[in-house]
Amino acid sequence: MKIEAILWTGVAVFYIVIGLLYLAVGGDTAGVVLLLLATGLGGLVAGWVWDWTRRNGERVENRADVDAIDSTGVVGVYPTASLRPLALAIGVTAMFLGIPLGSWLSMVGIAIVASQVLLLTRDTDT
Amino acid sequence: MTAVDPTVDPDREAMGGADPDRLVEIDDFLGDPDAHGPRGLPRTIIGWLTTTDHKALGIAYIVTSMVFLGIGGALAGVIRAELAEPGLQLVSVETYNSVFTIHGSVMVYLFAVPFGFGMANYLLPLQIGAPDLAFPRLNAFSYWLYLIGGAVMLLGFVADGGAASFGWFAYPPLSGAAGTPGIGADMWIVSIILTGTSGTLTAVNVIATVTMMRTPGMTLFRMPILTWNMFITSFMVLVAFPVLSGALLMLLADRQFGTHFFDPVDGGSPILWQHLFWFFGHPEVYIVALPFFGVVTEIFPVFSRRPVFGYKGLVLATLAIGALSTSVWAHHMFATGDLVLPFFAATSLLIGVPTGVKIFNWIGTMWDGSLSFEAPMKFAIGFLVTFVAGGVTGIMLASPTLDFHLTDSYFVVAHFHYVMGGTVIFAMFAAIYFWWPKVTGRLLSEKLGTWHFWLLMAGFNVTFFVQHLLGRAGMPRRVPDYRPIENFELWNKISSFGFLILVASMVPFLINVVRSLRSPATVGADPWHANSLEWATFSPPADHNFTWLPPIRSERPVFDLRWINFEGVGAPTSADAWEARHDHDEQWLPLHQWSDEEEQKRTTGPRPIERTSEGQSSDEDRADGDRGDDGEEIT
């Protein structure tokens, strides 16, 4: 995953350079903070990818001379159809809409979200 | 070699290998499309409500965003009808404010961005040889959040006080509790928080998929440009969308909980909102545009019969656009005066360079090619024309001296509709005509496509070109009325007439779609003779996409496969084309198989997907070391 790591490091480096440049030319505080926070975002992912590569080595997907056969076994376990994403979305909407429309709606939303998150996590046990 | 399955084990005779002059068709490899279980979209309402399939969700995204396009278009109709003559004829001033606010918000937040996400959903796993996105349930959650969030925005129209009426960028103090007291404004804010969150989650999904789920051989620099652009767009979404959500929560707190983030009387700053909003807002226009740049980059090579010109240049240009677009935000704020003007003028002009590189590469791709002008190619060229026209006025507006004069005039409206409207609409239809056979197994009529294209081209330019002149003469944005000075009346009439042509252009398209859907699905896997991996599966694709994959040795694996009999073209060496490929031929195997029959029959619970070696003893050792035992569990 070297190229991915380089990409994310590039994100971090770009934002720190442009952020410091913006600070140097007298940019506004909000802009400087946002640019430096974006550095953190890039750095966070870059760090994770570097560490992943260090621990696991290069992935077969990044070699130029391999075929499907070179990566066999269980690729992934995919979840089946589920009503939970829809219910969760309704819950989240109710949670936020409760802010202008009344706290009772937020309570309903929180209850839906909590129950659906619980059910979603239990789904993965089976 | 051990025979695996006659339908997925290509043999040289069957695919015309004995005849070195015959171009191989992808269908020769695929066998019976219905031998691998169900294909296509869910057929029941429950199926749609519960689906986690990236293809079904991709279509849901695209259809929903087209419905929002219709709603946004209808609101545009109200605007053009009101402006066709001086005076107030159709709506009140307050309603007019709501109409242009929701028109802009629907088009930007609920149509353009989600259409791109819809394409990412449908095409991205197909283009990199993956069975689905990395997190299918998260993907379903993103879609529902988008749909419900969008509905919340529109429900503002029936709320007490009407829908939000402060423009799609919601500048305080106008968007504060005193400026816009109605509940519709709060619903607008909640709606954007929800759809923004949906976008952020999709971006996470796309990045995880591209990083971890490419099929072996599909290195980053062999990915189709569309996938690259989706990947980079997702970076930008992660940088930009959370800032907007944060700013909207601050605005909601100002309105509901009495905080003073943007209230100058109590030490807050309305300019702070502008910085936060445009830190999202400028990347946003590229978040909208980059997926559509990717679309035309897929289309030009196919209809020019040439490889894409300057693949790495295009990737680097996209990266440069992605990076620079997050450092130009305050060029929307030149008129506030409280800025480092040279910094933002310089970065804004600089972004024209990678954009120019892209245009150069698209022209380079077509140059000296064997061009043909099927509907996708027509729309892609239409995209190029409108995008360049919008780009040129963008360079003008990047100069603060000109911007001071032109800001908040119809010149900006014209510029904005050329770069956002024209780019998106033309590339969107290019995408629809291009991938329609893959999604439905049917073709769209070329004749109706031609009518559609020319009507759209005429309608779009008649509507928006005169708005440059209106703006230059001083007509301000967001006004329902104007005095009959200069040529305002004439130009506004022309613009409104153009809108009617735009509406008319949708008629051949709708007829085309209905007629195509009622015809039998007979199109093969690769009707355009295209390049990327989505054309190496059935139309519509099988459940979890692929029953086998060709070897991937370049950024055009499907092209390589079709030209496999031709030395030096599809074959990597000058030795006998087939022999050179022999090792790989042995490895053409079903990529994704269910781990056992019992698992396949289960209708609930997680379903494992397995890549098997099926007696390829030479590869088993390697396989164990790679991902054999520790398959990632993705839920």
Structure description:
The complex is a heterodimer of chains A (126) and B (635). The longest helix of chain A has 28 residues, at 29-56. Chain A has helices at residues 2-24, 29-56, 84-101, 103-123; one strand spanning 73-78. The relative contact order of chain A is 0.09. Chain A is mainly alpha-helical and 126 residues long. Chain A folds into two domains: 2-67; 84-123. In chain A, helix 1 packs antiparallel against helix 2 and helix 3 packs antiparallel against helix 4 (103-123). Chain B is an all-alpha fold. Chain B has two domains: 27-40 and 541-628, no CATH class; 48-518, Up-down Bundle (Cytochrome C Oxidase, Chain A), CATH 1.20.210.10. Helix content of chain B is 60%, strand content 1%. Chain B has helices at 27-30, 45-50, 54-83, 93-128, 136-155, 183-212, 225-256, 270-304, 311-324, 341-350, 352-366, 375-397, 400-406, 410-440, 446-472, 488-518, 557-562, 577-580, 582-585, 597-601, 617-628; strands spanning 593-594, 607-611. In chain B, helix 3 (54-83) runs antiparallel to helix 4 (93-128), helix 4 packs across helix 8 (270-304) and helix 12 (375-397) runs parallel beside helix 15. The longest helix of chain B is centred in the first third of the chain and has 36 residues, at 93-128. Chain B starts with 26 loop residues before the first helix and ends in a 7-residue tail after the last helix. Residues 1-18, 571-608 and 611-635 of chain B have low confidence and may be disordered. Chains A and B meet through helix 1, helix 2, strand 1 and helix 3 of A and helix 2, helix 5, helix 6, helix 7 and helix 8 of B. Strand 1 (73-78) of chain A pairs antiparallel with strand 2 (607-611) of chain B, so a sheet runs across the interface.
